[in-house]
Amino acid sequence: MLLNYILINIISWLILFWGVAIPILILLKFVGLTGFRYVTRFEKHDSFFYRMNPVTKLALGVGATVVASTTAWFIGAGLTVILLILFFSLKDGRRKFMLGIYIIIMTVVGVTWTYAPYTPILVLNEAGFTTYTTIWVWPGYFGVMGYLHDLTLQALIYGMQISMRFTAALLAALVLVMTSTPSGILRGLKKVGMPEELNFAMVVAMRSVPRIFDGIDVTVKSQFMRGLGSNHTKYLWPFYTLYAAVVSILPVFIYLLKGARNTAISADTRAFRAFPKRTYLNPMVFTRLDYIAFVFIGIMIAFVGVAIELGWGRAIPYVGF
Amino acid sequence: MMTDEKKGIGTDVLEQQAVRQLTSRNVVEISGLSFRYLGRDEVAIQADNFKLKEGESVLIVGKSGEGKSTFVNCINGVIPHISGGELKGEVRVYDKLVKDTPMSKLCVDTGTLLQDPESQVLNYLVEEEVAFGPENLALPPDEIRDRVTEAIAETGIYNIRDRETYVLSGGELQRVALAAVLAMKPSLLILDEPTSNIDPAATQKIFELLRGLRGRKTMLVIEHKVERMLPYVDRIMLIEKGRISLDIPKQDLVNHIEELNEAGVEIPPTYFYAKQLGLDNVDVTYIRQKIREKGIVLAVPERRKAERTLMQVDARVSVMSKIKGQNTEKVLLDASLNLGEGEVLAMMGQNGAGKSTFLEAIMGYLDKTSVNFKVRLVVDGEDLSKTSIQTRGKYITFVPQTFELTIVTNKVESEVAYSLKQHGVKDYKSKVEELLEMYSLTEVRGKDPLALSMGQERRVAMASALGSGAKIIMLDEPTSGQDFYHKGMLGKEIRKLQTLGYSFIIVTHDSRFVYNYADRMVVLSQGHKVLEGTPEEVFLESEKYSIPPPTDYYLRV
């Protein structure tokens, strides 16, 4: 009896940590700091995404988000697959495709685990599930964390379906970041009324992203060199990496702050905000490709209406629906 | 005359610059200047009278932290418009009172290039970066295009104009930053240690640019590389403890070398010998000839010969890239290295030669998702090739150029104790005391390391590195951005540690530092070791690899 109780507790905690640990492990083991840096920065290349106006790509991202969030999960999943395949058109497409897959797996596992243990039968009923298969019963005190008594297969499926609302939007955002310079993106945002100062802050922030990753890399490796985790099994090292990354936040932040003064001087000694308006070396232009993309986005949005009409809209209800 | 429609918003800028061209006068006039930073008791800079004529170039020298940057920041408007404090007196640039003129007006006349290109380059693409200033001035697009083209041509960065700024080397990035400043068409250029973070070849390119600008622009240059900067300036100004203690024409330098040397300024050795021998020519060949004629034998720095090899490394690092549809291997590093016990080995080479990759390969820092590598590492007879970073860290320690990033605790003593604790050393407290004492950190033991001065921070990083118990110390660019005085301190520290049994690998661009403190050196070029030997042997041929030998060496061969 006691043994059974202990075993249930151990397995329960293992399952709980599995949901948390898998995305972290994928991030550390398969994506890594280098991979993450790779999919969050612009690299020059020549294919249709790179030739598109950033405003068009912003619209594409918004369109993908609207479609994925208002239609049935399989439409979001289909859009995710299409966007993933389009990763092949990017610079070093094969590698970016693989990184895209890892990021999608992370997202699916993470989101599924965020929803599954908390989703009540009432919501699952609304989602169309009628029979339930209990795959694990949590110890009673898990209720303190908001966990329901049973973990059902249907709750996991529901969580996975929910994750399809995020994946397409995430990939569209990555495409935007990987194929447009930050200033291009922000000039697009300016067109929709975003203030210049905020745009500049975001350009500098995005320009700092590679420096942040480099800084974290130096700090994490330095901690390992100085013996972090050396007295423990190497299977725990991924967690030490995570710990070291958290510890690195302060020194990296201070390091960047020291450079921020130079950044301010560099901007102000080059007339930043000298006039209420700026002119541009290369005016933003919309080409035929952009118009084709806008037609495609229009079709996507129109499809939402058709999908809802066909009964494929909001197949998963919101809580309280 | 342009019609109003054709005028951009910023066309008054063009008129302001056109008017400036027609005037000939003092560009900068300072009287009764005094500035104190907020929260500080001492005055950071005081200058009773200073004038700078159109087309003049002034070299500003002095130890770090003595007020050089504060002085130029009072001229470009950073003080008081960005950095606040108590400002007294008058600073005028082209007759405009700096404190009453907004930055947007001042920057039309004054361009500023800073030390660290990483933090001053703001955009992703080179062309975007160069266009940033003219775009802010709201100039017409054609004018922006002309300025960008001109600045790119002037700084020789045409071949990288389409590149992403984050893939550029430090030297390339600094030229981009200079192009971005020149695109503003300033008449007065302020350069605050523009070559501190770049290699000799890139430094040479910056100096060549300055030569081209001399006379056309008025320049104020803060630079520690006095010897290399001298041909391009008219005056030398020493700032000591916040005061202009010397302001002389370049020709008078020979009469003031003792003062400058005492103030921690690096004086070319030829000036010393010229003075000692009563010569009025400071050309190195001439001085060398005179030294020989007089039978003077100059002492050569002592080179210690190691009795046994402590570390052996063979490293091959490559990346696969697709060229014309074919997978092609690009070798980043293919070299071997031996380090003797108690030896100081310097590693030199251009940016991208493979020096940092070599250190990373030794430390086990390489990322297999980014590069292919095969590294054989033997330390003290033990094969560490397949060991973790933690294991290697017991034998080898590494202080990167950005050493402040290695500081992870909030107290000096806990930072020094970090490695000892992680390695499970039981009597770590006595070792911590020893290290605190050794690096004069006892008084600040309870303080946050990141709140200390840069010099103290570096000492904390070194003390912490030694705390690992490793006897091999690798330093990446420890001389970068350091003045002559602090480089000397570092050299002495290395010599002292050497006598305690430590061995060093030092990556540096500073030939003079290598000549004075290294026992042996290697030169890397395109990932391969191309030269190896004592500094005397290597400097015979190093110029082939854009590593100019120091004057100290020339005088002795």
C-alpha Rg of chain B, in Å? 25 Å
CATH topology of the largest domain in chain B: Rossmann fold
Q: How many separate domains make up the residues of chain B?
A: 2
CATH architecture assignment of the largest domain in chain B: 3-Layer(aba) Sandwich
Average pLDDT metric of chain B: 88
Tally of DSSP helical segments of chain A: 11
Tell me about this structure.
The complex is a heterodimer of chains A (321) and B (557). Chain A is built from eleven helices and two strands, in the order ααααααββααααα. Chain A is an all-alpha fold and 321 residues long. Chain A starts with a helix and ends in a 12-residue tail after the last helix. The relative contact order of chain A is 0.14. In chain A, 69% of the residues lie in helices and 2% in strands. Chain A has two domains: 1-180 and 286-321, no CATH class; 182-284, no CATH class. Chain A is globular. Chain B contains 22 helices and 20 strands. In chain B, helix 16 packs across helix 17. In chain B, 36% of the residues lie in helices and 24% in strands. The N and C termini of chain B lie far apart (64 Å). The longest helix of chain B is centred in the last third of the chain and has 16 residues, at 484-499. In chain B, helix 9 links the parallel strand 7 and strand 8. In chain B, the strands form four sheets. Chain B has a six-stranded mixed β-sheet, with helices on both faces. In chain B, strands 16-17-18-13-19-20 form a six-stranded mixed β-sheet, sandwiched between helices. Chain B is an alpha/beta fold. Chain B is globular. At the A-B interface, helix 1, helix 9 and helix 10 of A face helix 4, strand 6, helix 5, helix 6 and helix 7 of B.
Fold blueprint:
The complex is a heterodimer of chains A (321) and B (557).
Chain A: H1 2-38, H2 48-51, H3 54-70, H4 73-86, H5 93-115, H6 121-126, E1 134-137, E2 150-152, H7 153-179, H8 182-191, H9 196-225, H10 237-268, H11 288-309
Antiparallel strand pairs in A: 1-2
Chain B: H1 11-22, E1 26-37, E2 45-53, E3 57-61, H2 68-76, H3 78-81, E4 85-93, E5 96-97, H4 103-109, E6 110-113, H5 117-120, H6 126-136, H7 141-154, H8 170-182, E7 188-192, H9 200-213, E8 218-222, H10 226-229, E9 235-240, E10 243-249, H11 257-262, H12 269-277, H13 284-293, E11 309-323, E12 326-340, E13 344-348, H14 355-363, E14 372-379, E15 382-383, H15 389-395, E16 396-399, H16 412-422, H17 428-438, H18 454-466, E17 472-476, H19 484-499, E18 503-507, H20 511-517, E19 520-525, E20 528-533, H21 535-539, H22 551-556
Parallel strand pairs in B: 3-8, 3-9, 6-7, 7-8, 13-18, 13-19, 16-17, 17-18
Antiparallel strand pairs in B: 1-2, 1-4, 4-5, 9-10, 11-12, 11-14, 14-15, 19-20
Helix pairs in contact in B: 6-7, 6-8, 7-8, 8-9, 12-13, 16-17, 16-18
